[in-house]
Amino acid sequence: MPPKKELQKTDLPVMLTISKVIPEAKNHKTLFFNHKLDVKPGQFIKLWIPGVDSKPFAVSFHKKGSFAVTFQIIGKFTKALSKVKAGDIVGLFGPYGNSFSAKKNAVVVGGGCGMASLSNLIDRLKNPVIINGARSKDYILFRNRYKSAIIATDDGSSGKKAFTTDILKELLQKRKYSIVYTCGPEIMMKKVLDICNKYKVNCEASLERYMSCGFGICGKCAINDKLVCQDGPVFNSKQLSKMTEFGNFHRLKSGRKVKF
Amino acid sequence: MLKTNLCGIKLKNPTILASGILGVTKDIIGRIGKNGAGAVTLKSLCHEERNGNPNPAMIAFEEGFLNSVGLSGQGINNAAKDFKRLDNLSVPIIGSIFGYKIEHFGKVAKKMASLKPAMIEVNISCPNLDYKNPFFADTELTKKITRIVKKNSKKIPVSVKLSPSVYNIAEIAKAAEKAGADAITAINTPTGMVIDINARRPILSKKKGGISGPALKPIAVRCVYEIYEAVKIPIIGTGGITYGKDAIEMIMAGATAVGIGTGIYYRGMDVFSKVCKEMEAWMKKNKVKNLDEIKGIAHR
């Protein structure tokens, strides 16, 4: 007889009370929850505001009995999320997806809000080199949390006036690292991959696509023959190098393929 | 052992990816083919681009699955540019179409036919569209749509997908057959609701959605059984097939082929090869050489 366990799988929300809200960089906020979450670095969850929508988010803080989500206020849903206060209730789905490999001797390259996906990984790594990039001073995420990070801004208002990828190139030229972890704008991640391939260093990138279900059914987050929600969101150099859509195309809610 | 002939289309096995699950992009379709599906049904397309409903649009509850995706899709014209053609993929493709008005069905069928799918499936029964007068509940409307799709599909066989939310599914199937349908796909999802007692409201953004998965299977088996007695054309039995034994049961009710959708949620994309292996094991054990031996055998 087939194992009955497969049919016991469910995906239903858990309603959670927000314990704390803190403002982060410009247009960014962090929501804390006192809830024991079994989540690996790189995995994501979905938050549900009843009557509004439900969207995927990275877990940006993770301790034994609590976790947090850091987000950028960018659309209708995150605008609604930016208005919730401590004591308010939202729904949690997940966690979903695969995770980062968490190897030693790593470089972490974060661009903008991508730092939120990498922070749970950084906290588990032993002294990784961190490149934290943002468009300007006001947008640097977790500046005080990762004081050793190399800061890069597009306009030079803080740290170096450079792209994160310029700094990565310099680092890889100087010495050998075992892996580069990255999350940020896809054009940046594509450049990170190209640089890693040139210097023969492994790379893992956390990708973003429009997502509905989060568990491999709707097919909206497809990138080539992979589903970002289930096969990803973390992909390695070998997988990324094969993806012709990586850095080039993504799909809208309707499924229509468009250029970045 | 599992070779199936569906309206002249030669399938390596009777498992077909049901419409609405994955089936959006060429590369993913190829992967489903590699995972053993005998054919793949595209997610339904209409004359225009649709975003679908807000989330949550899909949840899995204890006994099954609920969705209110709302027929998101890039529209037939964008899909035509994206796919270019449907007859050169590694697996036979069934192009699923729908519309809001009868004229839309003809227009979309014509464009779909130009892409040369192995079959066209007419979705007259999505529970997530707000029909004023649902096509699926009316024998005359079912006939009209079937005729206009047939007229625009040239020689490509047409299957009409029916809803269980009627009292006379066999009559509706008969109407489709009379109007020229080459097959019946049964069934689409009936609607249901799940309320989160802590949130104190329905979980789906649209409140109600189509029920699929294990909860749907007995309804699907009953519908296929009734349709088999009413028509001569083949039936693609769809609803709650997760294991090989479910597919065998559906074939015994009268199905020629079986649709699998939500089964992917429970067992992964390779549910097709898993179901096929389980079917073959059952057949060997019960000395059944081919599926024709057991098709409709429950009718006695």
* Class per helix and strand makeup of chain A: alpha/beta
Number of discrete helical segments of chain B:
9
How far apart are the first and last residues' alpha carbons of chain B, in Å? 24 Å
Rounded to the nearest angstrom, the distance between the terminal CA atoms of chain A is: 48 Å
- The number of helical elements of chain A comes to 5
CATH superfamily of the largest domain in chain A: Nucleotide-binding domain of ferredoxin-NADP reductase (FNR) module
The strands making up the biggest β-sheet of chain B line up spatially as 3-4-7-8-9-10-15-16
Which stretches of chain A are poorly predicted, pLDDT < 50 over at least 5 residues? none
Order of helices and strands of chain A: EEEEEEHEEHEEEHEHEEEEHEE
Largest interface, with Cβ-Cβ < 8 Å? A-B, 40 and 49 residues
CATH topology of chain B: TIM Barrel
CATH architecture of chain B: Alpha-Beta Barrel
Return the string of H and E elements of chain B.
Answer: EEEHEEEHEHEHEHEEEEEHEHEHH
**Rg estimate of chain A, integer Å:** 18 Å
Q: Give the CATH H-level superfamily of chain B.
A: Aldolase class I
What name does the CATH topology of the largest domain in chain A carry? Rossmann fold
Shape of chain A: globular
Helix-strand category of chain B: alpha/beta
Catalogue the unreliable spans of chain B. none
**If you average the pLDDT of chain B, what whole number results?**
96
